[in-house]
Amino acid sequence: MIILVVNTGSSSLKYQLINMDDNSVLAKGLCERIGEDGHMNYKTDAGTVFDHDVPLPDHGVAMQLVINALTDPEHGVIADMNEIGAVGHRIVQGGYLFDKSEIITDEVEAGIEELCTIGPLHNPPALVGIRACKKVLPDTPGVVVFDTTFHRTMPDECKYYAIPWEYAEKYHVQRYGAHGTSHRYVSERCAELMGKDPKDLNIITCHLGNGSSITAVKGGKCYDTSMGLTPLEGLVMGTRCGSIDPTVVSFIYEQTGMPVKEITDMMTKKSGLLAVSEISGDVRDVCIAEAKGNHKAHVAREMLLRSVKRFIGAYIAELGQVDAIVFTAGIGENDAELREKVMDNFGFMGITIDKKKNDCRGKEVEITGKDSKVRVFIIPTNEELMIAKDTQALVEAM
Ligand code: AMP
Fold first, then answer.
1. CB-CB contact of 288 with 279 (8 Å)
2. What's the Cα-to-Cα distance from 339 to each of 280, 333, 377, rounded to whole Å?
3. How many Cα atoms are found within 13 Å in the side-chain-facing hemisphere of 96?
4. In degrees, to the nearest 5, what angle opens at C-alpha 235 toward C-alphas 90 and 366?
5. pLDDT, position 164
6. CB-ligand 1 contact for 334 (6 Å cutoff)
7. Which residue, among 360, 332, 340, has the nearest Cα to 206 in the 3D structure?
8. Residue 48: what pLDDT?
9. Which helix (H) or strand (E) holds 212?
10. So which residues are the catalytic ones?
11. pLDDT tens, residue by residue, 331-377
């Protein structure tokens, strides 16, 4: 089966066409600046085929251009759009309504719509993407795969905040987590690499990118994760502050009169590495400045290391026993120094890494040191493949 995986943002549409016979990517790309001036990128095995400005007034037009590219007589990878067996959509917030991936029905769409209150930035564009796909591929089944469903297995002591129950009961204030598809993919892949059943393993998965989260996976299921009601909780990130004393919000409000929405915006888009370094939210830029002796860049880098160490340490304590630690996403896959410095702190527990093996970027590799008590891996994430697998399974069972 050939599956089209779609990830829709408010002004973007990322896509990948995957052949499930061998998990190969036939084509992929990105439509950007939808509703503005428009730009489309389309790549196949042959390289980049299209990368140009093109009017993209809405997501429907972008979707049609993607189908046109995929079926293009010269550069296409399929002869006809009917070769697409199903479309899998990435949905960020499945909230309290969805515990697993679902075939798209009117009821499922209504559920995603209801969850716009807790996923205001991501769920509305995802719905636009679903509707654009339906218009262009009316007879092709669609599936939604949620970033949050992997975290639905958290026990109540991890799922809820220690505030009065009425806020959870009336307003669904609870911890939903994020990056679940990535944590699921790398934890399952880690078990595969170890030749073991996920049920027999405790794994800590570190998804460290622009947005970062760490998850404690117990017996194949999420036990705890660092992101909460929104992807602001947890680690220090590129532009997000991560966990802070919540009264910082009311204190800033009282001192400055800044509206709460603006404070949230500041903590989401203008904080983290960017704010502390006053240079960039990108770790690479921060490291360059740190190497030149910039103190604020050094503090930003140390804050990032501290937060990764704290969550790994917390999850070792919560799980009581750990078999593997996995690093993934932009920073996790590429930042050898971070991996080494973080894991060095766990040396006293008998966890070691092999510096030579660790000196690599973006490769699937075990970096465990000699006689290490816990195995350590770099596993490049593949959320698209995970979405495609769920999509295929649900459509085949229809
Ligand atoms: P992601 O959100 O997974 O695409 O990760 C993007 C982030 O990964 C960037 O903002 C960088 O901070 C980080 N990154 C990418 N490449 C490297 C690298 N070679 N070394 C350190 N960090 C990197």
1. no
2. 21, 9, 10
3. 14
4. 75
5. 98
6. yes
7. 332
8. 85
9. strand 212-218
10. 147
11. 999 999 999 999 999 999 999 999 999 999 989 999 999 999 999 99
Angle, helices 295-319 vs 336-344, to 10°: value is 50
Q: Is 284 in the pocket of ligand 1 (CB under 6 A)?
A: yes
Is 210 a pocket residue for ligand 1 (Cβ < 6 Å)?
A: yes
Hey, how many other C-beta atoms are within 10 angstroms of the C-beta on 129? Answer: 27
Protein residue with least CA distance to atom 18, ligand 1: 334
Sheet holding 142-146, edge to edge: 47-53, 39-44, 24-32, 13-19, 2-8, 84-91, 142-146, 102-103
Q: In the prediction, which pLDDT does 140 show? A: 97
| Alpha carbon distance, N-terminus to C-terminus of the chain | 14
Q: Is 337 in the pocket of ligand 1 (CB under 6 A)?
A: no
Q: Residue 148 in 3-state DSSP?
A: coil
| CA 195 to ligand 1 centroid distance, Å | 29
How long is the chain? 398
Positions in the chain whose pLDDT score sits under 70: none
Residue 235 structure tokens: 């680690």
Residue 304: what residue type? L
HSE-up (13 A, CA, CB side) for residue 129: 30
CA of 335 to the centre of ligand 1 (A): 8
Buried b (16+ CB within 10 A) or exposed e, 186-224: bbbbbbebbeeebeebbbbbbbbbbbbbbbbbbebbbbb
Q: What is the pLDDT of residues 148-177, one digit of tens each?
A: 999 999 999 999 999 999 999 999 999 999
What pLDDT is stored for residue 97 in this prediction? 97
Q: Which of 282, 288, 305, 363 to mutate to test the pocket of ligand 1 (most atoms within 8 A of CB)?
A: 282
